Amino acid sequence: MKRYLSLVVALVLALPTLAFAASYNIDPDHSNIGFKVRHLMVSNVKGVFGKVQGAVFIDEKDLTRSNVNVTIDASSVDTGVVKRDTHLRSPDFLDVAKYPTITFASRKVVRVGKERLNVLGDLTIHGVTKPVVLDVEGVSGESKDPWGNLRRGATASTKISRKDFGLVWNKSLETGGVVVGDEVFITLEVEMIKQVPK
């Protein structure tokens, strides 16, 4: 009986914390990873990775306990030009046959303002893992969709050097400079569905 009472008390004490913590699955149909990179030193080429999945745990009372894990299908890269996309999937760039996924696993979440978070974690591209910081704009509150699911959304961004991940293909231009810039600007548009305990 004492053990039962202890369990009840522990559960009651935990309820305030549990109410502020929840797990979400990324909705692949309403999420994408966008990027842009300098082309021929005169313009930016933009594209997206259309296939993304993952899980997000959010602890409102202790954000440092929150975590994010994302997996991107590297072959889903789409810049709107078939020939260019084929080249991006080739061994010159992503080499999707050898490295089919791009992953991000968070290590730490830090609040940097009322509406912003920094998510520090490990990004793996082309078999190379490097630390990056995602600058997250205010995670939305929950909204119920027509089917009864609770959803949240967030936008995050970061900047990487593609050379850091072994993506070194390039060609020099007669007028100076190179065909493809080194800096890649990345934006994540993520919609999440709250997981209901079974």
Explain how this protein is built.
By secondary structure, the protein is mainly β. The chain has a single domain, classed as Lipid/polyisoprenoid-binding, YceI-like (Lipocalin). It is built from two helices and twelve strands; from the N terminus they run αββββββαββββββ. The protein has an eight-stranded antiparallel beta barrel. A hairpin with a 5-residue loop joins strand 10 and strand 11. The longest helix has 17 residues. About 8% of the residues have low confidence. This is Polyisoprenoid-binding protein. InterPro entries: Lipid/polyisoprenoid-bd_YceI, TTHA0802/YceI-like_sf. Keywords: Signal.
> What is the structural class?
mainly beta
Number of domains: 1
The number of helical segments is: 2
Helix content: 10-25%
CATH architecture: Beta Barrel
Mean pLDDT over the full residue set: 86
Total number of β-strand segments? 12
Beta-strand share of residues? over 45%
CATH superfamily: Lipid/polyisoprenoid-binding, YceI-like
What descriptors fit this protein?
2 helices; Lipid/polyisoprenoid-bd_YceI; mainly beta; 198 residues; Lipocalin; 12 strands; eight-stranded antiparallel β-barrel; single chain; Polyisoprenoid-binding protein
